Amino acid sequence: MAKPTSTSRHTILIKQNYPLRFLIPAIAFLLVFFFIPTVLNFIYAFTNWSAFSKTISFNGFDNFITLFTSGTLLRDLRITLLYAIFVGIFQNVFGLALAVFLEKDTFINRLSRVLFFVPVIMSALAVGYIWQAILKSDGALNQILSAFSGHTVEIAWLGNINWTLLIVASIHGWKWMGLAMLIYLAGLKTIDPDVIEAATIDGASGSQLFWKIKFPLLAPAFTFNVATSLLGSMNGFDIVQATTQGGPGGSTEILNIFIWRTFGQGLYSQSTTMSLVLFVMVMIIAVPVIYLLRRREAKIL
Amino acid sequence: MSSATFGQVKTNERVTVNKKSPLGEIIHTILAVIILIIFLGVPFWLLIVTAGKSQAEAISPNMSLPSHWQLLENFKTVLIDGKMIQAFFGSVIVTVPSVLLTLICGSMAAWILARRTTKPMAIVYALSISGLILPPAVVTVMMLLKIIGLSGTAPGMVGVYVGIYLSTVIFFVTGFIRTIPVSLEEAARIDGAGPARIFFTIILPLLGPTLATATILVTLYIWNDVFYSLFILSGKMNLLPLNLYNVASAGLYLNNWHLIFAYIILMSLPLLAIFAFTQSKIISGITGGAVK
């Protein structure tokens, strides 16, 4: 028998002091409500499961082929990707601009920060309905524009197949910009004032100060905000459902809208297949983006 | 620290660079007010005046004041027709256990995952936080709940939310526990405290700020969620966002903006009230806890 070495005694102590049973509740919830459904998702995407047939049998890649040949698969993927990019841009540009603008702790700035957080705590569905009322063709915005221009303005903000997606993404950005603003503000507050002072003394201009010093130092906040805006928009549903329901002509149909619509029609396997497509899309896009952003952080800091 | 005020963030007080002239201050204030009016004033003004109108006046929503205010009548209509009382309690019954379970289970797991640093544990950790990024399989989770008899029920809904948001809590808390020195635990261990006591009396109290941030985010997500509850509950329970969806999509209420907006105001009040009383803590909690 070998004497217990100090490392093995250490291992025993670790096992005693940090028992695995503390993991059990979390693992159980994750297993039942997250991992098993995910595995099932991979299985049921290859079946003919629907509300119209009593039996479920495998049908290979039929669902993918159907979705691909109808053009829905690529169209919805493209729309979701564009939506995510637009939301990522809007949420971060709005958030960063607000953070810089409201950086000093004056009364009006503190008040503004609180008010800009109100959309964040509201339901996204409610936000969508409010903006639908503003942007519909006989809505508030066109009436305001009519009053200012002196003739009737009837722009179909939510009815254009080319740029309504952009409008809906900006509503998404509007809803979450308060959170992005706070995260950027937190980042700005951690910047050592000596660094700024030194750069000012060296004659850095305002824009140099921002782009060469402040913005790079905001890397952790940037990572967090880009990641949350990309993930939030690829998983988006409420705002699109409340404003356009995927229309006009399917031009704003992000994946979750399709999943809900086909689910409602009883086409469960198509719904599941699209859910798998979303899963793979997030893996392929979000994981490398977050990895690159983290590496950028490590390089800067 | 000065007393808590609007949205105060912990700050390096000696920032003196770029000191603005009084004129600059005035221009800044005017600009801020203009931005507030355009970005927040217009939508919220529309929300309030429309909620006070009659159906005829609200049919095409505009910024004008109602010819006569019937806000309270509209509130009464949606409270009854939108089943708001049941929906409020439904939302509470789902949100409170979901948040509590997520926090407790997540923190317990995070403690073990932070302290045991073996290869297998690293894999368990990676899997536990994978839900931060990966979208939940919403259709098959609904089917699974049907099989185990939990679909359309509050426990089923709670389970799904816990499964989705555990990753967030485990991620935040594990990162934080790694910064807590083990020596704090060892003192108690020498006194004979078991793991449960050490966790609940030493670790958990230290997690305050991190758990506060996680609570805010997870509560916001769950209280306002409509996507997952549409699938899981399929109309068998009243939740505030679900009933809003029904009120707004039901043919009977289509374009009844006065009722939709009255509903939105009422449903936003609970969180707005909590926010109004805790805003300085919430804002400093998010800014302090999220990005480290």
TrEMBL record, chain A:
It is found in: Cell membrane. It holds the Pfam family BPD_transp_1. The keyword Transmembrane helix applies. PROSITE patterns: ABC_TM1. The chain crosses the membrane at residues 20-44, 81-102, 114-135, 155-174, 215-234, 273-293. It comes from the Bacteria. One of its GO terms (cellular component) is plasma membrane. Residues 77-289 form the ABC transmembrane type-1 domain. Keywords: Cell membrane, Membrane, Transmembrane, Transmembrane helix, Transport. CDD domains: TM_PBP2 (cd06261). Its main location: membrane. It is a multi-pass membrane protein. One of its GO terms (biological process) is transmembrane transport. Belongs to the binding-protein-dependent transport system permease family. This is ABC transporter permease. It comes from Bifidobacterium callitrichidarum.
Automatic annotation (TrEMBL), chain B:
The chain crosses the membrane at residues 26-48, 87-111, 123-145, 157-177, 198-223, 257-277. GO terms for biological process: transmembrane transport. It comes from the Bacteria. Keywords: Cell membrane, Membrane, Transmembrane, Transmembrane helix, Transport. GO terms for cellular component: plasma membrane. It holds the Pfam family BPD_transp_1. InterPro entries: MetI-like, MetI-like_sf. It is a multi-pass membrane protein. The keyword Kinase does not apply. It is found in: Cell membrane. Residues 88-278 form the ABC transmembrane type-1 domain. PANTHER family: ABC TRANSPORTER PERMEASE PROTEIN MG189-RELATED (PTHR43744:SF12), ABC TRANSPORTER PERMEASE PROTEIN MG189-RELATED-RELATED (PTHR43744). Belongs to the binding-protein-dependent transport system permease family. This is Sugar ABC transporter permease. It comes from Bifidobacterium callitrichidarum.
